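This part of the workshop introduces the protein records we will be handling. Backbone structure tokens are a discrete shorthand for how the chain folds in space. Once this layout is familiar, the rest of the handout is easier to follow. The record below serves as our worked example for the rest of this section.
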Amino acid sequence: MKRTTVVLTLVLGSYSVASQSFGDIGGLESLRGFKELDATNEAPLMHQVNKDELLVKRNYVQQPPVIPHDVRGYQVDLRANKCLSCHSWERYKEAGATKVSLTHFETRDGHALADISPRRYFCLQCHVPQAETKPIVNNEYQSTSDLKK
């Protein structure tokens, strides 16, 4: 009986604390601010991705090129890499795509491999789709070539 009372007291006490902590969340806000859903409850449109023909200029040496097309729905995991169906050395010509850089076929120590290095296999870790968006924060970046002028 005594043990049941202690357990019941602990359960009710933790419920009370939880209800006080989560009951009033009116003051909480996401980092993006409070957004009301519209009447149709539709998600906002995604940003428009650049067309394939538009190659974006790189700002510094060794900058990974951005992806000039949509990659939503691409499977890139341990079993498959959709990017390589167009960008592999075997298929890039017929796909009209840029081939994977030779640097992606090297180990960390610079030894050549016959296939993509495991550390370079997950393309979306470095390469991101380029979209026409408004900057989240102001950016005054200048490339070194711009600074020379």
